[in-house]
Amino acid sequence: MPGLSGLDACRQIRAQPWGAHLLMIAVTGWGQEQDRRQALAAGFDHHLTKPVNPDQLLALCSSLHSVDEHPSA
């Protein structure tokens, strides 16, 4: 992204009150273990390497939907 990395964007979003509970998924061409750790440390919930498996992405989104439908007390 011009002017701002995905890691920096995630950090800025997480710093906002409205950004604390968003599902954030890094989709990147960088797939080494160090890249995954950096993404998670920046605040991403998941790290997917391109090309993304659509079934994996749908499963992540569906798991969030299930949590939203059945919130814990």
Radius of gyration: 13 Å
Q: Main β-sheet, in a few words?
A: 2 strands, parallel
Ranges where pLDDT stays below 50 over 5 or more residues in a row are none
Strand-pairing-aware structural class: mainly alpha
Distance between the termini: 39 Å
Number of helices: 3
H/E element string?
HEHEH
Shape: globular
Can you describe what's shown?
This protein has 73 residues and is mainly α. Helices cover 48% and strands 11% of the residues. It is built from 3 helices and 2 strands; from the N terminus they run H-E-H-E-H. The protein has helices spanning 6-14, 33-42, 54-69; strands spanning 25-28, 46-49. The chain has a two-stranded parallel sheet with strand order 1-2. The chain is globular and about 30 Å long. It starts with 5 loop residues before the first helix and ends with a helix.
Which properties best describe this structure?
11% strand; globular; single chain; mainly alpha; 3 helices; two-stranded parallel sheet; 73 residues
Please provide a brief summary of the model:
By secondary structure, the protein is mainly alpha-helical.
What topology emerges from the helices and strands here?
Layout: H1 6-14, E1 25-28, H2 33-42, E2 46-49, H3 54-69
Parallel strand pairs: 1-2
